[in-house]
């Protein structure tokens, strides 16, 4: 069953956070759970379980999140401010994909605005492993058959077509698309069975899906066995980015 996370509902979860490297930010949970809201003693979901996990990070102006990696595949969608992410200049709208156990960063937020980005995963992750810590570098090198996997699209220019392919599709299903819809236009997404879950994030306007309205800064997660995502643009039209995970964890 497709999960919906309207922006106004998620806003109640906004709180301050501090990462292990000391970087500070506002954290807004949309779907799943993170170490910032888990009940103490709750066991972590299995690393290979399908577990949607979505949150918005508003990284403080002038701050730097040091290079790190995660145990899960991940999309990040930059929706506000600007920063450098590794060697890449990122600002709205930028899509960034990293495979599990791929080190990336640092994320250097601009001094004037900071940077806002959705972090979107299809599996539970207990937190960043920072490369400055020797034990994390040792653990990364010990992972068999590990490969570095990273892809970036953006910052995107103004839409030039109703549907644009931003990343892929790769042979294992990893892909991203942007849809630009006039008021009342409908969209039907790709078959979710081609990947291991899809996120849809509204970056402008609003979408109506099964009687629910998803305004800007809302998201949805489509399971692989769900029907293709269908929605209609609201009165002001809509722009939405859809991101599909690989069939198997990278």
TrEMBL record:
Gene3D superfamilies: Jelly Rolls (2.60.120.10). InterPro entries: RmlC-like_jellyroll (IPR014710), RmlC_Cupin_sf (IPR011051). This is Cupin domain-containing protein.
């Amino acid at each position: 069953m497709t999960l919906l996370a309207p922006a106004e509902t998620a806003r109640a979860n906004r709180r301050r956070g501090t990462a292990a490297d000391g970087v500070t930010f506002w954290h807004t949970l949309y779907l799943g759970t993170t170490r910032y809201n888990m009940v103490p003693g709750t066991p972590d979901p299995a690393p290979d379980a399908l577990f949607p996990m979505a949150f918005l990070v508003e990284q403080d102006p002038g701050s730097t999140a040091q290079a790190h990696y995660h145990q899960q595949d991940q999309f990040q969608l930059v929706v506000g401010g600007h920063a450098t992410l590794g060697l890449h200049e990122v600002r709205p709208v930028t899509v960034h994909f990293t495979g599990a156990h791929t080190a990336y960063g640092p994320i250097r937020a601009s001094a004037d605005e900071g940077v806002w980005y959705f972090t979107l995963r299809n599996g539970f992750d207990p937190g960043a492993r920072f490369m400055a810590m020797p034990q994390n570098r040792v653990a990364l090198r010990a992972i068999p058959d590990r490969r570095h996997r990273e892809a970036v699209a953006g910052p995107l220019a103004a839409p030039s077509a109703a549907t644009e392919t931003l990343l892929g599709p790769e042979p294992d299903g990893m892909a991203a698309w942007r849809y630009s819809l006039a008021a009342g236009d409908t969209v039907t997404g790709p078959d979710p069975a081609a990947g291991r879950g899809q996120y849809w994030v509204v970056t402008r306007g609003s979408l109506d899906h099964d009687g629910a309205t998803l305004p800007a800064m809302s998201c949805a997660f489509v399971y692989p066995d769900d029907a293709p995502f269908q929605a209609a643009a609201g009165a002001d039209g809509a722009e939405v980015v859809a991101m599909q995970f690989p069939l198997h964890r990278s």
